[in-house]
Write a structure and sequence with these properties.
Keywords: Coiled coil, Metal-binding, Zinc, Zinc-finger
Shape: elongated
Protein name: B30.2/SPRY domain-containing protein
Distance between the termini: 90 Å
Pfam families: PRY, SPRY
Organism: Knipowitschia caucasica (Caucasian dwarf goby)
Largest sheet: 7 strands, antiparallel
Radius of gyration: 50 Å
CATH class of the largest domain: Mainly Beta
Number of helices: 8
CATH superfamily of the largest domain: SPRY domain
Structural class: alpha+beta
CATH topology of the largest domain: Jelly Rolls
CATH architecture of the largest domain: Sandwich
Number of domains: 3
GO molecular function: zinc ion binding
């Protein structure tokens, strides 16, 4: 017998159907395919022991149905020239019965070849069925789910476009109407002031003419009237003087100034604030620290200069005298003056039940317990105040109560110097708490006061 292994004949019999018609995974299950090809799978049998008494040390030969789908001559062991009818699971190779009983593989884990082949074929059948089912699921997913998703996507995109166009159109229409209303209000105010100016000009020109005439007449009387006639002209002179005095003194009035309220618009302010707070530069906040020189002895300042904490009497430490320090009110100012551009900053007020945030002139009084050094109680400071849940805006000692739906954990301040606008808002929702337009004649400093817990500049 030759030492070379005898190859198995794997050629398809001439009477068997073509491969492309015998196996078509997308049309039918794999078991049906195998059955239609004239092959019947047989469940693998598990053998509990080895038969070592057979002739030539070999085991019973496997039948075609036990060995697998294809039949033919099998390879022989090179050492014993016996049929390779066992599988060594330890070394993952085929061996003969001699190798399995007395050879090098006698102590290894051995499996009959028929059982090994049957198990692998069954595994392949399971794998092919799973792949077939997965392919069907993929096909259904493509045909149904993705198609439905595409249709829903187009419908959703169309609705979104319509919504955007509708909302922008409504906003544009409302803004155009507001623009027209405000321009008309400005025009009316301009015409009113112009009419006042014209009236004043006519009045005072007539008064000026009258005064000049009266003066000229009195000068003529003084220089050309004989003494005897002048002595009896006292009544006439008195009437002329009284008429001149009746002209009165010219004075500037509010009627000659254009009212800034004519251009005030809650809608326009809200849109402007939305553009600033939610626009492309929304994340740009102005960074500053508290100026340690200004911090009141009633407060303590963190090492990073961002947090102010109200201190009780026992823990207060004496502070060196500084003309910039507040000595009576629990105030502190920012380190950088603001006199141009747009600036916004956020303060974490946490659970503090008593605080003030806003801006003030650098010339604000620092000493004493009077209103001149108290934030919001003078004309040099503008602050939003919270006292035990009661929110209000203070300026010049006047209080404007605010309706706050939800107690904010953070308060934002927006200062737009070109439009002289100061705005307070709630950063999480960008809800405007209060806004105003004023004339800031001097640079402003961020200003804070706290008498409960602490507040922190957020970066």
């Amino acid at each position: 017998m030759s030492d070379k292994p005898v190859p198995c004949d794997l050629m398809r019999p001439s009477d068997s159907p073509p491969v492309d018609t015998a196996i078509k995974a997308s049309d039918q299950p794999i078991f049906s395919v195998l059955s239609s090809g004239g092959v019947k799978m047989k469940e693998a049998r598990v053998l509990a022991g080895l038969d070592c008494t057979g002739g030539d040390g070999g085991s019973a030969l496997t039948t075609d149905s036990e060995s697998g789908i294809f039949s033919g001559e099998c390879e022989l062991c090179e050492d014993h020239e016996a049929e390779l009818d066992w599988f060594c699971d330890t070394e993952q190779k085929l061996v003969c019965s001699h190798c399995a009983t007395v050879g090098p593989c006698r102590a290894h884990a051995l499996i009959p070849l028929s059982a090994r082949v049957s198990s692998l074929r069954n595994h392949l059948v399971d794998v092919c069925e799973k792949i077939q089912l997965q392919a069907l699921r993929v096909e259904r997913f493509i045909q149904h789910t993705l198609t439905d998703k595409e249709q829903k996507l187009q419908a959703a995109a169309s609705r979104a476009r319509e919504q955007v166009l509708s909302r922008v159109s409504a906003a544009r229409e409302a803004l155009e109407e507001e623009e027209q209303r405000l321009l008309e209000a400005v025009q009316r105010e301009e015409e009113r002031v112009e009419q006042c100016l014209l009236t004043q000009q006519v009045h005072w020109k007539q008064a000026l003419t009258s005064l000049n005439q009266t003066r000229a007449g009195l000068v003529h009387t003084l220089t050309h009237t004989p003494d005897t006639q002048l002595a009896i002209s006292a009544q006439d002179i008195s009437e002329r003087v009284e008429g001149a005095e009746g002209v009165g003194e010219p004075c500037d009035t509010e009627q000659l100034e254009m009212k800034s309220s004519c251009s005030d618009s809650a809608m326009l302010t809200a849109l402007w604030a939305t553009a600033v707070l939610l626009g492309p530069n929304a994340d740009r906040t102005s960074s500053f620290q508290f100026d340690a020189r200004t911090v009141s002895p009633l407060l303590s300042l963190s090492e990073d200069l961002f947090t102010l904490t109200f201190t009780n009497r026992k823990s207060r430490e004496p502070c060196p005298y500084d003309p910039a320090r507040f000595d009576s009110w629990p105030n502190a100012l920012g380190s950088r003056p603001l006199s141009s551009g747009t600036h916004r900053w956020v303060l974490d007020v946490g659970q503090s039940a008593a605080f003030k945030v806003g801006v003030c002139h650098a010339t604000l009084e620092r000493k004493g317990s009077g209103d001149e050094a108290r934030l919001g109680h003078n004309l040099r400071s503008w602050v939003l105040s919270n006292y035990d849940g009661e929110y209000s805006f203070w300026h010049g000692g006047r209080k404007v109560p605010l309706h706050v739906v939800r107690r904010p954990r953070r308060v934002g301040v927006l200062l737009d110097w070109p439009t002289q606008t100061l705005l307070f808002y709630e950063p999480e929702s960008n809800v405007v708490l209060y806004s105003l337009t004023d004339s800031f004649s001097a640079p402003l400093l961020p200003a804070c006061a706290v008498t409960d817990r602490s507040i922190t500049i957020v970066h």
